[in-house]
Structures are given as C-alpha cells and as structure tokens.
Amino acid sequence: MALFNLPIATRKHLLNLGLCLALIWGVYDALMGPDLVSDLRDFTGRYGAYLLLISLLFTPLSQRWKWVKRHLAMRRNIGVWGFIYAALHVLIWIMLEFYYDWSLMLDEIAGNLFILLGILAFFLLLPLALTSTHKAIKYLGYRKWQLVHTLTYVAIPAVIAHHFMAQKTATLEPLLMGLVLFLVLVWRYHHVR
Predict the structure, then answer these.
(1) Greatest CA span in the chain, whole angstroms?
(2) Which pTM was predicted?
C-alpha cells in the first residue's frame, strides 16, 4: 500500500483534491439530473454528514488499528470538508430553494423540526470550522480549544437526526449512520472521561 507510505502532507493534498473532485462530480451529476436544486441540496447534505461522521470515527478506530492511527492527522481535513459540504447545503437551501426569502424560510423552519435541527447543527459546526487551524489552537490554548471542539458531540448527532428526519421514504442509510454514531458515543463515554 504505497499510498499509506506517502508523507502526511502529500496524503492531505490528495485527500483535499479527491474531496474537491467529488464535489465537482456531484455538481456535474446534479446538472444532468431532472431537479438541480434538490439534487445539489441532497448531495451536499448527505456527503457532508458522511464526512462529519467519518471524522468522528478516527479516534476510536485509531485505538484499534495502527493503519488508521497513521491517518489520524487527516481527521481535521475531513471534518473541515464536512463543514464545507454542510455550508454549501445551507447556501443552496437559502439561495436556490428560497431565493433569500427570509419570511418564507422562517415559516418553513417553524413548521419543520428537521430544518430547525439542521440549522442548529450548522451553527454548532461553525465555531468548530473557524477554530480548526493551528493559529486558533495557539490563540485559545489547547484546553479551551478542546472544550470548543466538544461541540462535535452535539453537532454531529443533530446532523444525523436532521438527515434521518429529512428522508421522504424509509431508508436504511440514516439508521446505519445513527447506529455508527451511537457506537462512537458509547465508546467515547467508556474511554474518555
């Protein structure tokens, strides 16, 4: 596995390139589909949730497998990309679905718990993304930075709940994501106190 032996900076660049290309492909695919706005919104929301959940999985999996531990430094990049996809999801909702009609958006929020959860999740993820730099860690100090990043354990369940409630038909995907999240939270409770 030559990819695993590359320097971490190279692996991060390859990860960033891959996730950028995935986003471009998702936009292209949505452009070819019948409902551009819905396809873009669903793609960015779904893959944002996947990336955020994957970023959360790194710590417990790195305790179990050494090959995951070698990639632990990429967790932040994956989390930031998860936020980028989530931010695009919110922007698509505001710009393309509601055309900046704030009163219509507020009516929609008031009538849908899943939208409220999505907005809550986004605002919980925002400080995490803004403090995901080395400068932020230095500025805040490691303990305060770590305290801010415990918001992850509220934000990602809100993301998964939003994803689950947004499904128009019953699918196994959000249930599996919820199960994985539950297992990660149980692991965290037992191993990090």
Answers:
(1) 54
(2) 0.92
